[in-house]
Amino acid sequence: MWKVRDDEPGYAFLKESTAPAVNYYEAPIDLIARTGGSLPAGREMFINEEPGVGANPNRNKQHAFHFTADNCIGCHACEAACSEKNDNPAHISFRSVGYVEGGTYPDFKRMNISMACNHCDDPVCLKGCPTRAYTKHVEYGAVLQDPETCFGCGYCTWVCPYNAPQLDPIKGQVSKCNMCVDRLEVNLKPACVTACLGNALNFGVVDDLPDNREQGKLSIPGFPDPEITHPNIRFQQIKNMPDEVTRTDGMAVKYHKGDDGQYRPVVDQKKGVEKKWSLSKLNSRENPLVIFTLVSQASLGAFLIAFLGAQLGIDSLAAMRNSVMYVPLMALTVGLAGLGMLMSATHLGKPWRFYRGFNNLRHSPVCREGLGMLLYMVFAGVHLLAMLPANEVFIKVVGDWGHLNGFAAACGYLALMSGSVGLYYMYRCYRIPARPFWNHWQTATSFLGTAITLGSVLLGVVGIPTLIAFGGNVAQLFTIALGGIALGSMMEGLGLWFHAGAMDKANNEGSVSHYIQSTVFGKSYVLRNTVLAANVVIAISLIFVAPSVTTFGLALLLCLSALVTAIIGRTLFYVLVIPTTMPGAFFWKNKDFEEHARDIGLANMPQVGVVAHAH
User: 3-class SS at 211?
Assistant: First the structure.
């Protein structure tokens, strides 16, 4: 535990609590009561692997930070104290100070905001983490994270609205504010609170106002919707701010005061209105996820059409199943699923710990996505093996072992069920309130549409030459493949149409993402949409034309166009999302400055706190 100094100042100690029985959200402040008494009081926390129980009389009550915005002078002493205590490198800070500003001279105002983890009542990081690295403790209500359990997927950094979890690209793991529980055990306030020069930060039992404070507000300008997580932080802000305040970091967000007095994010056109290509900016840390989602969805789509069509007795697909090329087609789908799983693992900060991705099946959509896709790959692989004895090449080389059609069909259906679960939770992974651009049903139409489109491309490329060589209803398969491309493209296009309309009206970070999409990536966006519409028209047109060398050539070009469209669309999906993060400063926590520092070489100086896009 923390060693208390003999000359520890009085302001460093926690005050006696006079908190009510329940917090603002009507949840008991006594955390043992929240568990129904299932967890005992007086547990050892083994802080720094040391036994012992602290003497804090409020040990089992939910604690919270209190921030008085009027008092913060932006000195960053809280940041420095936190980083020193936790021995953080320059590029990691559990607490950060940003600010918003507004008005005109001489009535120009700035408000500083100091923010760390809010140790929420409903911690979305805990539910999202696939490794169960997070725990909500009945001791102080601290949400603690174990960096050694973490494998660096970064999903908690996606779902947290306050950018509290910090992904270290060098160590490949996440860490965060731990509420200084070692200090709390000896009745001391966290290090950041003790270091605050302006008496802006305070700490104690939630909804127990600090001395000389009269407000326990849930929000201030720049703070995301507290309903997302029920955060344990309270604010005081007496001084009025202008009706519109802006961020000084590069994010194209500003905050407008509504009729109810609450500030909400709106678009700030910092990037101008000129449409650009910005193709080089389509490259991102999420590239492995681009590959993972595309190849997994292509595999699922091809397997669905080929297997289910044959089971339903469609002539061309039944002929494909009975041909020598069915096993290679199934091998291709299994291989693509395997490639997707490999890409999802390479996205991790610690890829060798991929097996921890199934530890939180109770809560995490990431776990369920991974398990669904893994089982799909396994059952599709067994289906492939069960179909081998019916393959003519196998019979000629090994001999006739008899057929396993019933077993193969059962495995095929299990593969479809597992793949459907995997695809559904692949979609659920992105329904994140903290990322409004993703949090729309269009994500489902995009994923399902891509599966049908790319699955049809894969089936057509393999199946049509097969039926030409070995006999079969080529025209029917040609129509099925073209119909799949048209259907999948229409599905995605319809979702994009409604998504654009919703984001235009949303007045949140999703609107900002759409603004960036329409300007910084405007030409790439228009190109994707135009080609997507052209794909639908061409596919439908080719359906009504008799198969020939010319139509096959046009169909191949259509397949290539569908693939390029899918890649551009998916890369845009990842680079455009703007989260509900707290405002940064001009240098610190500013994505534009980080990009500038990498461009001019400042990032090579560790003290700048900017690192390369790698982990």
Answer: coil
Distance from C-alpha of 347 to C-alpha of 291, rounded to nearest angstrom: 10
Contact 185, 54 (CB under 8 A): yes
Sheet holding 233-236, edge to edge: 201-205, 63-68, 233-236
pLDDT tens profile 207-254: 999 998 999 999 999 999 999 999 999 999 999 999 999 999 999 999
Q: Judge contact between 211 and 16, C-beta under 8 A.
A: no
Residue 2: name the closest of 190, 227, 274 by CA.
190
Could you read off the pLDDT of 10-39 as tens digits, one per residue? 899 999 988 899 999 999 999 999 988 778
- Determine the CATH number of domain 286-505: 1.20.1630
Instruction: Tell me how far CA of residue 187 lies from CA of 10, 30, 180, 198, in angstroms.
Output: 11, 17, 11, 22
Per-residue pLDDT averaged across 139-147, rounded? 96
Contact 205, 62 (CB under 8 A): yes
Domain with CATH 3.30.70.20 in the chain: 10-242
Residue 390 has what pLDDT?
Answer: 85
Which helix or strand (DSSP H or E) is residue 257 part of? strand 253-257
Dist. CA 595–CA 577, nearest whole Å? 17
| Residue 614's pLDDT band (cuts 50, 70, 90) | low
188 forms bridges with which residues in the sheet?
A: 13
- Check residue 50 and give its pLDDT: 80
Q: Tens of pLDDT along 289-300?
A: 999 999 999 999
pLDDT of residue 615: 46
Looking at the chain, the domain(s) classified CATH 1.20.1630 span 286-505
Distance CA(122)–CA(117), nearest Å, equals: 13
- CATH number of 10-242: 3.40.50.880, 3.20.110.10, 3.30.565.10, 3.30.70.20? 3.30.70.20
- Rounded to whole angstroms, how far apart are CA atoms 146 and 133? 5
